[in-house]
Design a protein that fits this description.
This protein is α+β, with helices and mostly antiparallel strands and 238 residues long. The protein has three domains: 3-55, Roll (Structural Genomics Hypothetical 15.5 Kd Protein In mrcA-pckA Intergenic Region, Chain A), CATH 3.10.290; 64-126 and 215-237, Pseudouridine synthase I, catalytic domain, N-terminal subdomain (Alpha-Beta Plaits); 132-209, Alpha-L RNA-binding motif (Alpha-Beta Plaits, 2-Layer Sandwich). Helices cover 22% and strands 28% of the residues. It has six helices and 15 strands. Strands 7, 8, 9, 10, 11, 12, 13, 14 and 15 form a nine-stranded mixed β-sheet that branches. The chain has a four-stranded antiparallel β-sheet with strand order 3-2-5-6, with no helix packed on it. It has a two-stranded antiparallel sheet with strand order 1-4. Strand 5 (49-51) and strand 6 (54-55) form a beta hairpin. The longest helix has 11 residues, at 227-237.
């Protein structure tokens, strides 16, 4: 896949995209032995790129995974109480990765894992407002007024929640299902918001994170992100 040179350098972990643009403008980058300064330069996977004389790709190999987390697993590398962690689901993986953010033990769905610390930091930074959409099932009938409170913001004791978007509201015999999109990551936010409205969350699943969607990935399974998906994550961070 053809990529702009600054994106290629950012994905390789050399620098953020803005910093990569500066490296290019300063004439510190060569493609196939030729110094390039044009920010529109594009490279192919087969091209050799050097920064300050060092071949890009000789650094640590970055890995980007999407996991469909089942309920019952802790989102951490290790647990002091011997509970199962999401790392146990990464069979046959020969590179250490780390979860980006957390899903609580009872929550299912999309979890991103990587060893690209700069990207992970950017996705988690509160100024990025990366959207995350969840499927929620609660007990009781959620009213229009309750939806309004969810969408406009609520006081949780540790601050006000940012506006959300509630869609696909449907009532069942015993409860209500809906999707909700957040742009922040307060601890157990959805469960706490619903609890304040008198509704217990009985099922919670993350469907998307930024441009990534869960799709038909089986519960407990993981896959490597495509080059296009990695680039799309960099687009929203840098």
């Amino acid at each position: 896949m053809t990529l702009r040179l600054q994106k290629f350098l950012a994905q390789a972990g050399i620098a953020s995209r803005r910093s990569a643009e500066k490296l290019i403008a300063e004439g510190r980058v060569k493609v196939n032995g030729v110094t390039v300064t044009a920010l529109g330069t594009k490279v192919e996977p087969s091209d050799q790129v050097h920064v300050d004389g060092e071949l890009v790709g000789s650094k640590e190999r970055f890995v980007y995974l999407q996991l469909n987390k089942p309920a019952g697993y802790i989102t951490t590398v290790r647990d002091t109480h011997s509970r199962p962690t999401v790392m146990e689901l990464l069979r046959h993986l020969d590179v250490r990765v780390y979860p980006v953010g957390r899903l609580d033990q009872a929550t299912e769905g999309l979890l991103l894992l990587t060893n690209d610390g700069e990207l992970a930091h950017g996705l988690l930074h509160p100024t990025r407002h990366v959207p995350k959409t969840y499927l929620v099932e609660v007990s009781g009938m959620v009213s229009g007024a309750a939806v309004g409170e969810l969408e406009c913001g609520m006081w949780l004791g540790d601050g006000w929640t940012a506006p959300t978007r509630v869609q696909s509201l449907a009532h069942t015999a015993v409860g209500t299902t809906f999707t909700i999109t957040l742009h922040e990551g307060k601890n157990r936010q959805i469960r706490r918001m619903c609890s304040l409205l008198g509704h217990e969350v009985v099922y919670l699943k993350r469907l998307s994170l930024g441009p990534l969607t869960l799709g038909d990935l089986a519960s407990g399974a993981y896959r490597h992100l495509t080059t296009e998906e990695i680039a799309s994550l960099y687009d929203i961070v840098f």
